[in-house]
Design goal:
Structural class: mainly alpha
Strand content: under 5%
Distance between the termini: 58 Å
Number of strands: 0
Radius of gyration: 15 Å
Order of helices and strands: HHH
Largest sheet: none
Shape: elongated
Keywords: Membrane, Transmembrane, Transmembrane helix
Length: 81
């Protein structure tokens, strides 16, 4: 059981990463609503897709948030004016 003392540290790090990913997802989602350039919308959609994939592994149990972020990022990537 030598790894047991590191378990709380690991959980704190995972929690901080999940919080940062969530804040970034909210920021880029709000930024996405104000964009009109096609390339900027597509690149923001790619960033949101990457954040959705990271969030799936970090924030266990928040599967609905992953699905919504995944759908939003795919819609942003395929958006045409």
């Amino acid at each position: 059981m030598p790894m047991m003392p590191l378990a709380p540290f690991f959980l704190i790090v995972v929690g901080i990463i999940g919080l940062v990913v969530s804040i970034l997802a909210i920021y880029f989602s709000l930024r996405l609503g104000r964009l009109s350039d096609v390339n900027a919308v597509h690149s923001t959609g790619v960033v949101l897709l990457i954040l959705a994939i990271i969030g799936l592994f970090v924030a266990n149990g928040f599967f609905i948030g992953f699905i919504l972020l995944l759908i939003g990022s795919i819609l942003a990537i395929t958006w045409k004016p």
